[in-house]
């Protein structure tokens, strides 16, 4: 939506991540500034070493997070909030824009273990390593 509440279609040749403050140049010469909508979040605070442990637990659950120095932002979730408080975090609700980290693999990229042939088998003792023959 534009600043006056009107809608427009953004048709890019490829997907692009747009962040708060980015601008899009229009063919007419104007610029459309990206303004992130506020959403209900939790501000997670703790001492430096505790905050690192909390970040580990959030990452272990593959939750989107935004790290702002001494605070971690996550989407509101009462179950996760209870876990964080149990781990010693101070949590406060906030309504603000959310721009989570993209991660090492650039977003929705996954590394599933699968086979491209008819060689399906169980991964028992070798734990998924493929240092054996499928012959």
TrEMBL record:
Cellular component annotations (GO), alphabetically ordered: cytoplasm
Return the Basic and acidic residues bias intervals. Answer: 115-135
Classification via InterPro entries: UreE (IPR012406), UreE_C_dom (IPR007864), UreE_N_sf (IPR036118)
**Which region ranges are annotated with the description Disordered?**
100-135
Report the record's Gene Ontology biological process terms.
protein folding; protein-containing complex assembly; urea metabolic process
Protein keywords: Chaperone, Cytoplasm, Nickel
Q: Per its UniProt record, what Pfam families does this chain match?
A: UreE_C (PF05194)
Question: Gene3D superfamilies, from UniProt?
Answer: Urease metallochaperone UreE, N-terminal domain (2.60.260.20), UreE, C-terminal domain (3.30.70.790)
Report the GO molecular function annotations. Answer: nickel cation binding
Occurrences of domain Urease accessory protein UreE C-terminal (ranges): 39-123
What protein is this chain from? Answer: Urease accessory protein UreE
Can you name the source organism? Methylocella tundrae
